[in-house]
Design a protein that fits this description.
The protein has helices at residues 49-56, 85-89, 96-100, 121-130, 134-137, 164-167, 173-179, 196-201, 213-224, 238-246, 251-268, 302-305, 327-338, 347-352, 362-365, 388-391, 402-405, and strands at residues 13-14, 23-24, 74-80, 111-114, 143-145, 152-154, 183-188, 206-209, 230-236, 275-280, 286-287, 295-297, 308-314, 317-322, 339-346, 360-361, 371-375, 380-382, 395-396, 406-413. It is α/β, with parallel strands linked by helices and 414 residues long. The longest helix has 18 residues, at 251-268.
Length: 414
């Protein structure tokens, strides 16, 4: 699996019982939870990438969970926010270089990984950096309840503030690599250098802030050449922003994809000897139409509101927190109302089905909703009053559908 073995957890842990179900608008029979395509934790998820690369460099406490990735003295991960496997494959003209890396029949080595649940940035970056699934690292959603305060916490913006090290106590793979004498570095926007999310997910070694994509990939190449063994991470966010604002069917998104493709090629052409470059992403994306059929407004739906104290997560991956004693009533209601459009599970059912990984740390258990709802169809649960900005987004993500869950793993070696 990944590094380090998540059992025993710092404060105990939970494993899973066995899966159950979910439902459709007009149909009493719930959609079975075993029909949800659960992420491939331990063999083909984002959480398995960095431990595999570090294990190839002999870093203690890491495991090669993706054995087909041959060891390299130097490795670089270029994470492109919002670049799903399906979206990349659908746009070969806009991304000719990355497309050339997709198929083994054309000499490429591309394959998909699963992002992990939910397929959202804070969760995925924590999985990448720690090498652990969400149930262990403890960032299981865009917004989740802080059991200590009872408030919703936005884990991307880290609001309201919580002690980062108490929230996520495990070392990152970069920290393990640095401690083992590997040159570890992150090259990203200067705005991310001191954020709590960076501290808990991507710290270790040295952080280098660079403003433009070109500056980042050029400096990443320099960092790779700085030592005989190097583990370097770089990041580009603007493709995701274009998808949220305009959708993945937009000219703006396609223009960003063209730019990203040139960045990947630019970095690949500068790799020092004995280097492996891996291009990946944190999630894919789907465009959701703006009508009541596709956007169910929690703030205007008294049935969905009944018994609910907090609405967490995001439109396609909701954490629902119920009044004490109302958990089962909320679960039944959400299944009846949402039907076959969502997989709807209790907390224990979602854990049993493996949505958050094979193990749930005790400190993470109550962060997960009493009810967890993951979209199967092209539909959102918006909250127009509580979440006006998120409710207005064209492109969305979070659930377990292939369009959101599958991310590319493209390899270039020098």
């Amino acid at each position: 699996m990944a590094h380090p073995s998540p059992a025993p957890a710092p404060d105990g842990g939970r494993s899973a019982p066995a899966p159950a179900g979910s439902a459709h608008w007009d149909h009493p029979e719930p959609l079975p939870l075993d029909s949800a395509p659960v992420p491939q934790y331990g063999s083909g998820s984002l959480a398995d990438l960095l431990p595999t690369l570090a294990a190839g460099m002999g870093v203690p406490g890491t495991t090669a969970a993706i054995p087909e990735l041959a060891p390299a003295d130097r490795a670089c991960v270029f994470l492109i926010d919002g670049l799903g496997w399906e979206q990349l494959r659908a746009h070969p003209d806009e991304a000719p270089f990355m497309t050339s890396l997709l198929a083994t029949s054309r000499g490429g080595t591309g394959r998909p990984l699963t992002a992990g649940y939910p397929a959202t940035t804070a969760t995925s970056l924590a999985s990448v950096g720690t090498g652990l699934p969400p149930g262990a690292h403890g960032l299981p959603g865009y917004t989740v309840r802080n059991p200590a305060t009872g408030e919703l916490m936005n884990q991307l913006r880290w609001q309201p503030h919580s002690d980062p090290r108490a929230w996520q106590p495990y070392p990152t793979v970069f920290q393990l690599a640095h401690d083992a004498g590997v040159h570890a570095a992150q090259v990203s926007s200067p705005a991310f250098q001191n954020t709590p999310l960076t501290k808990v997910a991507l710290s270790g070694g040295t952080f280098h802030g660079r403003l433009t994509g070109e500056e980042r990939v050029d400096f990443a190449a320099q960092q790779l050449a700085a030592a005989d063994r190097a583990l370097v991470y770089t990041y580009y966010a603007e493709l995701d922003g274009a998808g949220h604002r305009y959708g993945v069917a937009s000219d703006t998104w396609r223009g960003q994809l063209m730019y990203v493709d040139r960045l990947v090629q630019r970095l690949a052409e500068q790799l020092p000897p004995r280097t492996a470059l891996y291009v990946t992403a944190d999630h894919g994306m789907v465009d959701i139409p703006f009508d009541e059929q596709h956007r169910i407004d929690f703030d205007e739906d008294w049935e969905l509101q009944a018994g609910v104290t907090l609405l967490g997560g995001e439109g396609r991956a909701r954490h629902v927190y119920a009044l004490p004693g109302a958990e089962n009533d909320v679960l039944i209601c959400w299944r009846e109302v949402l039907g076959e459009q969502f997989w709807v599970a209790s907390r224990d059912e979602a854990i049993a089905a493996g949505w958050f990984g094979p193990h749930i740390d005790e400190r993470v258990y109550a962060r997960i909703g009493d009810v967890v709802a993951a979209a199967r169809d092209d539909v959102l649960i918006i909250a127009s009053e509580r979440e006006p900005k998120e409710s207005a987004m064209v492109g969305n993500h979070g659930s377990m559908t292939p369009a959101e869950q599958l991310v590319p793993l493209l390899e270039v070696r020098s």
